[in-house]
Structures are given as structure tokens and as C-alpha cells.
Amino acid sequence: MQVEKVGRDPSCSMGVDCFMSIARAFGTSCFTDEGSRGGGGLSRQSSGSSAEAARRRKKRQMMMKRSDSKLEIWLHRVPGRLFLNSSSEFASLFTKAGKKGVNQDAMVFWENFGPKEDTMFCGIFDGHGPSGHLVAKKVRDSLPLKLRAQWELDCTSGELGLMSGNTVGRTALAECSLNSFQSESPTGNLDNGKKDVQTDIFLTFKDSFLKAFKAMDKELQLHPYIDCYCSGTTAVTVIKQGQDLIIGNVGDSRAVLGTRDKNNSLFAVQLTEDLKPSLPREAERIRSCKGRVFALPSEPDVARIWLPNNNSPGLAMARAFGDFCLKDFGLIAVPEISHHHITDNDEFVVLATDGVWDVLTNDEVVGIVGSVPPSSAAQTLVDLAHRAWRTKYPTSKTDDCAVVCLFLGSSSAEKVSTSMD
């Protein structure tokens, strides 16, 4: 399959401002009014008859499908937004189905994202369960809108607070734990002025991420035609704003940085942690909520979360969107958020689903991406991952794979442009 090469389209005149006004409406609507929505069958209001209730439910489903269809059409027209196998000046994307059925992985890259210049968004989503492909696609389309809308609100609130002399932000800054912020630089050498600015950025985005992820999970819970009871998705999302990366992670997909050491050798820095039930803090939370964590004898290295009194559904991650059968028993959709300040040595970030990480190490992935033309980096990585599946697990079904490569800095952009010429 050939990778589509996508550049900026100066002829596009759809009106980004007009689009974003509509997108904000989609992004900020959490559908929390169960009375008007019916909550996808969650409403407890009595209907006149089962037939009438069925007609109302079908009508809600049709309305939501039309709404989702309109949103998808608008998103497809957004300049600089990629979600299919393609490449641009700054990114390379590729996904390929495994041998398990429909491809449940989704991906997105969005240039010119957000209210500030030099802002990009990218994300990887690995669906699971009967409706996993629908959940992953829905989160791919809706989460960026919610995040952008929330960021704009937070930026506006912050500016108003500064104009009125509000010191709440500074107080929060002083009191905030920076455990997630310590990965900001591989060298760890930042002067206080830069650290203060970057900490402000981190705190602003942290609040936006938390609110957007919460709203996304709530929308899935109330969705009238996507059954998320035993289906869900992971999400690794990255916002690049200037020289800062803000990463939000739910599940066991992964983001890895390709950077160079003092000898100019390329090496990998993992930016996210695989949030699996085997992690002590995750297992403790699950067990405190009456969920169970154990591995099956047939796969002793794969810890899963189980219902208290039923050996199902056996989810191999501790955080996920959807999967509401487990949300009362320790599964959460709260993202782990971190920050990285881009240095001159940083070249690219690779986001990938576990279909890649199960067969290739971080260093192998970084080595592959760094050795091929950037425009074909994602496709090369996916193809090699599929080959590795056949070699390492010949009796297992190859997993779906999805990759987004985000190239950092002018040198990376020049390499992409050269490879695309």
C-alpha cells in the first residue's frame, strides 16, 4: 500500500474559524442531560409502553448517528488533519489490520491545532471488545475537539485571572506535585525561569486534559448506539505547543522519543508508562474497588482486571475509555499526564499501539524510524512489526498496528520535505 503524501492546501477556503465554531459545539457537549438524551437506555423515566420506548430509543440513535456523520464530514474537510495512511511536512501515519478481524486501531494528526500558533495534536487509539473499532474512532474524532475547547476556556480564564490580579494559578503552581513533570528533559538542566514558564504550561494543559478525558468517557457512557459496556479503547495523545510536549495517556499504548546523546547516537526515551494491572499502584486501586487482578495459567505474564465474582472480562489494562462493566471495580479513564521540553537533540516522537511494542523494543523502533525517509517511517515500522509477529509468534494471530511519527524541529521538517520531493 502506498502512503499518501499530504501537504498544505493553500486553496482550501472552508473557513477554519467557521468550522471551529461548530467543532466547539461538538467538543463541549458532554451529553450529561439524561432526561433529554435518555442515556442510551440509562434513563429510568417510565414510557407509555415498550413499543413507545423502543421508538424513542431508535429516534435518539438516528439523531446521534446523523450528528456523528455531520461531525465526521466536517473533520474530513479540516486542512492539516490526517487520520488515514498518509504523511505531511511534520508527521507520518500508518495502520494495518492484523489477523483478528476488523482493524480496531485509530490514529490522528492535526496541524494548526488550538488557539495558539505552532500547535499540533496527535493521538493513537487501540480499541478492544465487540465495539472497540467504533469506540476508538469516536474517541479519535471527539477527544481532540473536547481538549481544544477546554484549552480555549482555560486560556481565557487564565488571562482574565491575570488581568484581575488573581494569584490562584501561582498558588496552585507552588503546591502542585511535579512528579509527572520530571521527565521534561533527558538532561534535567533547566534554569528557574524556563522551568517556571514550562510548569505554567504543564498546569494549564493538565487541567484541560483531565476535564476533556472525563467528558469523553461520560459521552461514551451515554452514547445511544455505541455499546461501551464491554468495549473500550486506549489513548495516547500528544500536544506540541512550541517547544513543549504535553502527553496524556490512558491504557497500554505508548509514546517514545527519539533523541541523540553527546556522541550523536540516536536512542529512545519512553515518554509514557504502560498502565497495566500489574503495576502495584494500579493493582492497589483495583483491589480497593473490589476488582480482581490475576493472570491466567495460559498467559502467566499478562495480568488482567476481572469482576469480583465473575471470570470476565479479563481486561489487560488498568485504564481505558469505555468498559463500563469495570468502572465500579477500579478501571478508570483518568489520564496520566506528563511534560517534555524539546531540546536541540530531540528528533521525533513515535506513538504506537501495543501491536508494535509487543514485538519491537523502544530502541528498535527508534532505530527503524531514524534510518528511513520520514515520509515512509510509519509504514516501514508497521510492516516490520507485522513481520516480527510472524517470526516471534508464528502460532498467534497478528495484532492490529498503528503508528504516528511526529517530527520535531526544523531539521526534521527539512528531512521530511526532502524525502517527499
UniProtKB/TrEMBL annotation:
Residues 43-52 have a biased composition (Low complexity). Residues 33-65 are annotated as: Disordered. Transmembrane segments: none annotated. Residues 90-408 form the PPM-type phosphatase domain. Pfam families: PP2C. This is PPM-type phosphatase domain-containing protein. InterPro entries: PP2C, PPM-type-like_dom_sf, PPM-type_phosphatase-like_dom. Signal peptide: none annotated. It comes from the Eukaryota. GO terms for molecular function: protein serine/threonine phosphatase activity. SUPFAM superfamilies: PP2C-like. CDD domains: PP2Cc (cd00143).
